């Protein structure tokens, strides 16, 4: 069981990540690639990713066991500001920290995520520990190659899912503050003030000590949340974004690159009314709010939102007894007449 202990100061410093973290998504997707579960959501993605992988990933396989602890340095805090910023932080890693964290991989002695499932480190990991930072260029090259194959083609879809998650949590925050935000998180997270609990492979207590907590929703995180092993690092909780589970149609389309999704249905999206509806969504709207803003019937608003969701312009997430529609990066770019932001 993971227990995160909050003080009043910590509650005031809870915050949502502003965007998906490319390094967390890359590392967690490597877990999903070797996992045979969730075929409906990730089966086609696995097939397409494996077909594109033509580089070396054996070092990644050694550093990221199928189960168990993986080094904190693979997901630096700087990654929240973008892929290149995160890689720069990795590039500046010190040998002492690298060796310390690598020694926990497979040791079975750490208290990090799943450390109890450890096995003796393979020879290539032993070489990395002995060689220190001289092997970093190889690690960075493997990370870049894997990211291009597994994550980059789906980035627009991932962004849309995280934006929908942020919109739902933002509403909870506005409705009832940090207490309501923490209570609204996915079911595997239980808010029993002043403690946030989650099933975890090891028994662990995290005390925030006034530093607050960064909530980082993730597309590739599944079943349980993940946190860093080192208690002195900035506290972060990576958890499964609820948006990926919001509808069967979204789950069925998740494995397809965004461009392919759009080509299948974008031809349906014509006419003045849908342009008005798309603009009316704004920073997020329920179906009834959308109907009122656009001046259309409830049934019409629902139908237009459905077509735009199939076209990749809108993401829909259940929020309490209603559904919340948010504009995807593609939809925002269409409204602005510009390109999709990366």
| Low-confidence regions | 108-120, 243-255, 261-268, 338-342
In terms of quaternary structure, the protein is: single chain
Taken from the alpha-carbon principal axes, the silhouette is globular
- Number of strand elements: 11
Our estimate of the beta-strand percent is: 5-15%
**End-to-end distance:** 37 Å
Order of helices and strands: EHEHHHHHHHHEEEEEEHHHEHHEEH
What structural class do helix, strand and pairing data support?
A: alpha/beta
Helical content (DSSP H or I, runs of 4+): 40-55%
Strand order of the largest sheet: 3-4-1-5
Radius of gyration: 21 Å
Largest sheet: 4 strands, mixed
The pLDDT mean sits at: 82
Q: What labels would you give this structure?
A:
alpha/beta; four-stranded mixed β-sheet; disordered C terminus
Give your account of this protein's structure.
This protein is 47% helix and 13% strand. The chain has 342 residues and is α/β, with parallel strands linked by helices. A hairpin with a 2-residue loop joins strand 10 (314-319) and strand 11 (322-327). Helix 2 packs across helix 8. It is globular and about 65 Å long.
Summarize the structure.
The chain is an alpha/beta fold. The protein has 15 helices and 11 strands.
Layout: helices, strands, pairs:
Layout: E1 2-5, H1 8-12, E2 14-16, H2 22-34, H3 39-52, H4 58-63, H5 83-91, H6 95-102, H7 123-131, H8 136-150, H9 155-183, E3 189-192, E4 195-198, E5 204-207, E6 213-218, E7 226-227, E8 236-240, H10 248-253, H11 258-265, H12 272-281, E9 285-286, H13 287-294, H14 298-310, E10 314-319, E11 322-327, H15 329-336
Parallel strand pairs: 1-5, 2-6, 6-8
Antiparallel strand pairs: 1-4, 3-4, 7-8, 9-11, 10-11
Helix pairs in contact: 2-8, 12-13, 13-14
């Amino acid at each position: 069981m993971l227990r995160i202990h909050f003080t009043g100061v910590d509650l005031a410093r809870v915050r949502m990540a502003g965007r998906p973290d490319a390094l967390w998504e890359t590392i967690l997707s490597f877990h999903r690639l070797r996992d045979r579960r969730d075929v409906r959501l990730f089966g086609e993605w696995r097939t397409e990713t494996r077909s594109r992988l033509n580089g070396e990933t054996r070092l990644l396989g050694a550093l990221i066991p199928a189960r168990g602890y993986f080094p904190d340095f693979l997901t630096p805090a700087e990654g929240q500001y973008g892929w290149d910023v995160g890689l720069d932080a990795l590039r500046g890693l010190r040998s002492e920290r690298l060796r310390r964290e690598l020694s926990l991989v497979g040791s079975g002695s750490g208290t990090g995520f799943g450390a109890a499932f450890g096995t003796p480190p393979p020879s290539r990991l032993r070489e990395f520990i002995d060689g220190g930072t001289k092997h970093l260029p190889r690690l960075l090259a493997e990370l870049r190659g894997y990211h291009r194959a597994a994550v980059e083609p789906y980035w627009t879809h991932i962004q849309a899912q995280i934006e929908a998650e942020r919109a739902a949590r933002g509403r909870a925050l506005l409705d009832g503050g940090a207490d309501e935000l923490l209570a609204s998180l996915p079911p595997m997270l239980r808010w029993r003030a002043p403690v946030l609990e989650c099933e975890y492979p090891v028994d662990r207590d995290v005390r925030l000590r006034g530093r607050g907590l960064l909530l980082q929703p993730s597309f590739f995180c599944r079943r349980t949340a993940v946190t860093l092993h080192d208690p002195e690092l900035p506290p972060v909780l990576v958890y499964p974004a609820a948006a990926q589970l919001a509808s069967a149609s979204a789950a069925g389309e998740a494995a397809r690159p965004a461009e392919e999704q759009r080509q299948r249905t974008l031809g349906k999206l014509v006419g003045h009314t849908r342009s008005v509806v798309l603009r009316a969504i704004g920073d997020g709207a329920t179906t009834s709010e959308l109907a009122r803003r656009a001046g259309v019937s409830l049934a019409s608003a629902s139908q237009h939102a459905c077509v735009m969701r199939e076209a990749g312009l809108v993401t829909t997430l259940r929020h309490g007894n209603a559904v919340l529609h948010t504009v995807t990066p593609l939809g925002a770019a269409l409204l602005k007449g510009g390109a999709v932001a990366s």
